[in-house]
Here is the input.
Amino acid sequence: MRPTAPLIAGIEAGGTKFNIAVGTGPNDIRATTRIETADPKKTLRQVMQWLASACRKHGAIKAIGIGSFGPIDLDPESATYGYITTTPKPEWPHTDLIGPLHARFQVPIGFDTDVNAAAIGEYAWGAGRGCDPLVYITIGTGVGGGVLVHGKPLHGMLHPEIGHLHVPAPHTRGVIFDKCHCPFHQSCLEGFVSGPAIAARWGIKGEEMPADHPAWEEVALTLAYGLVNVILTLSPRRIIVGGGVMHQAGLIDATRSHVLRLLNGYLHVPQLLQEIETYIVPPGLGDSSGVCGAIALGIEALHRTAA
Here is the structure.
């Protein structure tokens, strides 16, 4: 008889919501929930209460994986390892995520950015299998990018902040707010294509816009500038683009077209010239990439502890 896989809790900690799952992988999820992101104390209390209830129903969890919005401290030697640091999210700067969860459950905890977690999930089970390097970009409440090299997340000094790549400011007619929506920068990717940026620029939420709204052409072009920078800098084998904004029909196709136009034939590789539909792709795990990747982080933390 094959041994039963350990039960892992995966937490996708986002600026709008926390998605949580308990299971062993994407094909064995025992329980899931969504908790709206409030202040840190309330949110973490609700997370721990739900996990405790899931443990009573499904059995004890053996590890926890957390993929969090950021910036976050990923240096295990740092006094603030496991913290969200200088996020623009009100009330959340300098919040300890790992500490309360470890104190409550006393299990190994894997910790990384939400987009690195999503990249890990896609590499293990989704559209990123066999792709090295791999880039995952999410366009939602914020914009973030995760980079895997040899299947491991790129950290370095901190972690990639692809959402804050400098891009040309769009000048589309009809906007009601023509500035970058980022509080730190004057012309960055997140400040023009994130959900809140789209709503601020046009006075209407993206999900309420018709398919022919001029905002979508602006988003496609601006995102394409960011992807071109990623392609020329990191030379990934595949780019996965997810997040709520990318649910808009036709947006990924328009973005691909702009990428090819901006590259202007400079890179003579089949992935771009003949196979761009399989080079810039949506997530294979759909909206579950992040929480499944968090489970993968928990599995890795458990293996690290057992080694």
Summary: The first strand starts at residue 8 and ends at 13. Residues 214-234 form the longest helix (21 residues). The radius of gyration is 19 Å. The chain has two domains: 8-117+287-306, 129-282.
